[in-house]
Amino acid sequence: MTTSLAEQTALITGASRGIGKAIAEKLAAKGAQVAIASTSMEGAAKTAAEIQERFGVKAIGYAANVADAAAADQLVAAVLHDFGRLDILVNNAGITRDNLLVRMSEQDWDAVIGVNLKGAFNCMKAAAKAMMKARFGRIVNIASVVGLTGNAGQANYAAAKAGLIGLSKTVAKELASRNVTVNVVAPGYVETDMTAALPEAARAALLPLIPLGRTAQPEEIAGAVAFLAGPEAAYITGQVLCVDGGMAM
Ligand code: NAP
Q1: Which of 43, 76, 180, 182 could link 137 by a cystine bridge, Cβ 3.0 to 4.6 Å?
Q2: Torsion angle of alpha carbons 236, 214, 93, 201, nearest 10°?
Q3: How many domains does the chain have?
Q4: Which pTM value belongs to this model?
Q5: Does residue 50 belong to any structural domain of this protein?
Q6: In which domain, by residue range, is 145 found?
Q7: What is the CATH number of the domain that holds 224?
Q8: For residue 23, how far is the Cα from the chain centroid?
Q9: pLDDT digit string, tens, across residues 174-209
Q10: Cα–Cα distance between 88 and 85 in angstroms, integer?
């Protein structure tokens, strides 16, 4: 059984920036080879080149819209071709299209469900065969605390993240006999491009809801992902780990 991250290949979706980039850096720092995917080839290739230079591991960027099943299949096939193996899959790609229920368009509902929920389904389905054959796999899905609590203005996003938790537990049960674990990290409020778009008043209103009294940096989410992808979490599957400063306790 492979146990060291240094022998492994990790595919991280949405890794050109933000939390995904921090996850790729953390896994690379532990010696893993990393496949960096985002819709923008330029962003993915830039991050991969930076990681290769900084950590001395093989890193390749890929352009793929995970909401598209054929693109997810091609992404996984390309990673298997380029690295010869796929041990860790982190489904991190995500978008927001916030609005109140009565104002939310069908397009915004479909877009968020498409990337945040169907994207993870597409990538897990594409990766499962190789992991089952290898009798080894570590899948970590990035949900959100709002998938547990709900959040006004985020019907699409909260539904996608709650769905992702149910999907993860189901796949955890289906793949456990092949030594493939599936776990979820549910971040709270993390400083990235996604949250930078929030108006100052909304940011200020959030702080009192965080018991630890501060927002998180992407690296703090990456640490939990590296744990769940690593050898010390070999007996953990189907779990949701909130990394949220205490928001959802
Ligand atoms: P971000 O800074 O907006 O980055 C999102 C990443 O996903 C980018 O690399 C983006 O690259 C990629 N992406 C977007 N759509 C994609 C698609 N269809 N296919 C492939 N890649 C795609 O977001 P973040 O804050 O780091 O969030 C990362 C994950 O954490 C998301 O799932 C998010 O829901 C979750 N999360 C974030 C927070 C937070 O406070 N920031 C809290 C809880 C959960 P391109 O634009 O080039 O495609």
Answers
A1: 180
A2: 150
A3: 1
A4: 0.98
A5: yes
A6: 5-243
A7: 3.40.50.720
A8: 8
A9: 999 999 999 999 999 999 999 998 888 888 888 999
A10: 9
